[in-house]
Amino acid sequence: MTSYLRSWLYSGTSAVEPAPTPVPTIQEISPPVSDSEDGDATETEQDDDLPPAFPSLNSAQRVQSSRLPRILTDSQLMPPPPIPSLSSLRQPGVPNTRGNSLVVPPSTTKPPPKPKKGKKVALAPGHSPLDWAALKSSGADLRGVDTLLRIPPSVLKQHNKRDDAWSAFNGKVYNMTAYLPFHPGGEKELMRVAGRDGTQLFASTHGWVNVDFMLDSCLVGFLVPEPS
Ligand code: HEM
């Protein structure tokens, strides 16, 4: 059987043998395979992680670039960047005059403004802003008057004691007496406006505070011009 098949195979191929075609030959493999120790390792069995040579060894790109003439000499090449100054040499707030560091621009080296003179004071226990909110909405009489009044500056001036402190803010007159121990800036600061118009001082100290809301249950009337 085998001999029959062999004779049939050879006789068939010899009859229809095609004309020989040129076979391309591989000139070089990139990268060159290194000799392995056991001698029978194939390309896929290699465990080196070297990337293939780029451009490939026989590429036109590689051949061309090696023939290119050097255009610039070493002295004509761009100089390397300056070495950045060490951070230990930098002074906070002092602009860098060497001009080669990453220090913040001079516009931001101005030291921050000092905090204002007025400070918050430690309030006595039971005098937190929440305690004040509870007191003013408790229904307790914090005004000391039965009806809203028209108050000229001369009348306002008479209410300048700790136990009777009135002040005007934006045309409204408030009895601040109950609020004095609750004021986060202290009683002393608040007493500076007792018996007079405190609008200016209030606005320059903390314009963001809503006095109308804080003292709504302490309103006693409205500031009016002195009667002639
Ligand atoms: C009766 C009107 C006033 C009310 C309702 C009031 C209310 C307040 C409130 C709620 C704060 C805390 C503000 C915050 O934490 O941001 C405060 C702080 C302060 N208040 Fe008044 N205030 C009044 C009038 C005044 C006046 C006339 C002065 C006078 C200078 C003054 C001086 C201060 C000061 C120095 C602080 C501390 C500011 C800080 O936190 O640095 N307050 N006041």
UniProtKB/TrEMBL annotation:
Signal peptide: none
Keyword Iron applies: yes
Occurrences of domain Cytochrome b5 heme-binding (ranges): 156-224
Listed GO CC annotations: cytoplasm
Domain of life: Eukaryota
Family: Belongs to the cytochrome b5 family.
This protein's name: Cytochrome b5 heme-binding domain-containing protein
Taxonomy of the source species: Eukaryota, Fungi, Dikarya, Basidiomycota, Agaricomycotina
